[in-house]
Amino acid sequence: MGSFRKFQADNIFTGTEMLPANQVLICNADGIVEEITDVQDAGDSIEEVKGILTPGFVNCHCHLELSHMRGLIPEKTGLIDFVFSVVTQRHFPDEEIAAAIATAENEMLQNGIVAVGDISNNLLTLWQKQKQQLRYYNFVEASGWLPAVAEQRFGRSKENYDALSKVSNSSIVPHAPYSVSDALWQLLQPYYQNKVVSIHNQETVFEDELFFAELWGFCAYVRNDETGHFVL
Fold first, then answer.
1. Please, are residues 50 and 9 in contact by the beta-carbon 8 Å criterion?
2. Calpha distance 202→99 (Å, rounded)
3. For strand 23-27 and strand 5-8, is the pairing parallel, antiparallel, or unpaired?
4. What is the reported pLDDT for 178?
5. How far apart are CA 168 and CA 196, in angstroms?
6. In angstroms, rounded to a whole number, what is the distance separating the alpha carbons of residues 93 and 100?
7. Distance, CA of 37 to CA of 145 (rounded, Å)
8. What pLDDT, on the 0 to 100 scale, is given for residue 232?
9. Is 100 helix (H, G, I), strand (E, B) or coil?
10. Closest listed residue to residue 63, CA positions, set 34, 95, 97, 38
């Protein structure tokens, strides 16, 4: 058992249940969990730790490239003012942005985060992700509600996607239903296959109203007048 490490804590959380303190988690030399067993069967060389042992956390929706804006925008001003502030105030010197990105990643590491779903609109995080300190899945956003700019916006996203895909798994994704033209949707669709897709959706009351108006409009369109059933 020399190549194994054994840990006992106040509790062990398996991801589905909390185990009592008499359980020991055993990992191999690569840090892979081999088993969880009773302390009486675990042998010697058990390392005792305070607190709870738990699987690593996942930050499912991160904007790492905007770490330098932390605390900059007032809270509770509404989505429109928030987005406007992000767009108009995000431009800082690259060295300040890089330092904030490194600080934010270190904070995630210190808080037990091991994997991140990161919304990416540029390549400012690329150098940090190349260090492989966290496992990232990059959601490379595309937006543009004017059909005339669809090719340009897609091309820029594709360049970011190609670069980020070299260091971690990535997808090209639409920003939101209201910010992507039909032409841009068509360019994005081939990149959905076998990929995880993220979209900002129904974040405000106004988006709910738009969503349900479109939904009921569609339902009214496909309703069979003779039977009253919805048909496709």
1. yes
2. 33
3. antiparallel
4. 84
5. 13
6. 11
7. 56
8. 45
9. helix
10. 97
